[in-house]
Amino acid sequence: MKRISIIFLQAVIVLIGIVALTILIRFPLTEGRAANLDLFSIYFDPFILYGYATSIAFFVALYKAFKLLGYIGQNKVFSSNAVKTLRSIKYCAIVLGVLIVAAGLYIRIAHNKDDDPAGFLAICIVTTFVSIVIATAAAIFEKILQNAIDMKSENDLTI
User: Fold this and answer.
1) Nearest CA among 42, 146, 132 for reference residue 84
2) Under 8 Å CB-to-CB from 78, ≥6 apart: which residues?
3) Proportion of the chain above pLDDT 70, given as a percent
4) Residue 79, Cβ neighbours under 10 Å: how many?
5) Residue 104 parent element (H or E)
6) In angstroms, rounded to a whole number, what is the distance separating the alpha carbons of residues 30 and 153?
């Protein structure tokens, strides 16, 4: 892959991180029930704090994807570090999916009867599906890469 492509993809990952961080900071201020609250009450709401804690897995996965692109740029894609990075991305996606499902179940069970949780639950379903797809893709790439590394080491031993 050309170096410019790697830099472009890394820039896209950084941009995704900046947009996600901006959403995490700005969204609680615009949320319906937070319209009449002070800043302390908004940012120390247990559900908002849960969202921040859940986002850690997302940002770790972004960092690992950035790191994986660095390995690709250095032509170290067939290394154990790349396999470990893909494994970390897979685990982050699984954790993120489980935490999103937990948030959806909490809202489904504990929401106010006057509120309609359908929009939030739809977002939970979509983001959980995306997490599952990313975890599956990372697992497949991890397995393919590990097989390639194993084949390479076998060929190096026979030569």
Assistant:
1) 146
2) 145, 148, 149, 152
3) 96
4) 14
5) helix 80-110
6) 55
Cβ-contact 42, 34 below 8 angstroms: yes
Sequence spans of domains, the chain: 3-158
* HSE-up of residue 93 (Cα within 13 Å, Cβ side): 22
Q: How is residue 144 written in tokens?
A: 């393919």
What are 77-95's pLDDT values in tens digits?
888 999 999 999 999 999 9
Confidence band of 38 (pLDDT split at 50, 70, 90): confident
With H, G, I as helix, E, B as strand and everything else as coil, classify residue 154.
helix
3-class secondary structure per residue, 10-57: HHHHHHHHHHHHHHHHHHHHHCHHHCCCCHHHHHCCHHHHHHHHHHHH
Q: How far apart are CA 117 and CA 138, in angstroms?
A: 31
